[in-house]
Amino acid sequence: MQRRSDQSAATLVADPPEAEVSPRRPPAGRVKSAEIRDILEQEIATGERHAGERLDEQAVAARFGVSRTPVREAINQLASAGLVALIPNRGAFVRETGLGELVEMFEVMAELEAMAGRLAARRVDPKRRVQLAEALAACQSAAERNESDAYYYENERFHEAIYDACGNGFLAAEARRLHQRLKAFRRLQLRVPHRMRQSLAEHRRIVAAIEAGDGETAEAELKSHILVQGERFADLVASLKPKQG
How many CB atoms are located within 10 Å of the residue 125 CB? Predict the structure, then answer.
């Protein structure tokens, strides 16, 4: 895949199909900083908010009908994920993420996850086996409902179970940090047609390998599972066609 670090990854992503898009504003009385963050995150990842654009706290608060406190919390979370830059005395601005940088992060993520899978196959205990099985079942339920956002959050739980099972706290912390950094893009690619089903099938193979104590296969499956989101990201982007008419 050709890398183009001078081009924003966000500008390459077309809006997801209308039926798959989450509500643009949560119901009144239920707006939380996490919900605001998710919506702003989606807008950044799809290019609706362009690199360099200022996030006006007051305008965002008015849009959601909340005080500036949850908005500030949401923006701080986006900054922690590397999607927003906080500039003293100026405010928060959408950060440009080049496609080359994005692919490099996916490559590192694949290596971290692969190592976690290999160690989990050797070290998983009965408690972690149950957690992994429950997370897989929750992913399957979300996929059967065809709810990509619900699947994404269950997918987070699935990968958390692998991190917990690997028995290496430092590795788990680094994987969680990068997972958070790539969240917006991993979430978006689940809206590609059939990707949820493919992801679920990959999850099943990963769990089977860990259950069998097969570290080599668990490592290979997890590496492939992440790289499909990175090395093939251009193909995933190309399949996200804007709604016509």
Answer: 11
Q: Is residue 191 part of a domain?
A: yes
β-strands 54-55, 84-87 pairing: unpaired
Beta bridge mates, 84: 94
Which of 70, 94, 118 is the last residue in one of the domains? 94
Q: For residue 8, give the DSSP letter.
A: B
Q: 32-66: buried (b, 16+ CB within 10 Å) or exposed (e) per residue? A: ebebbbbbbbbbbbbbebebeeebebeebbeebeb
Q: How many other C-beta atoms can be found within 10 angstroms of the C-beta atom of residue 163?
A: 23
Please give the model's pTM, rounded to 2 decimal places.
0.72
Which pLDDT tens digit goes with each residue over 200-226? 999 999 999 999 999 999 999 999 999
| Strands ordered across the beta sheet of 84-87 | 54-55, 91-94, 84-87
Q: Measure the CA–CA gap between 44 and 11, rounded to whole angstroms.
A: 9
Name which of 103, 97, 106 is nearest 6 in CA terms. 97
* Same-domain pairing of 81 and 106: no
Rounded CA gap, 231 and 160, in Å? 23
Between CA 221 and CA 207 the distance in angstroms is 10
What token pair was written down for 77?
């979370």
Q: How many domains does the chain have?
A: 2
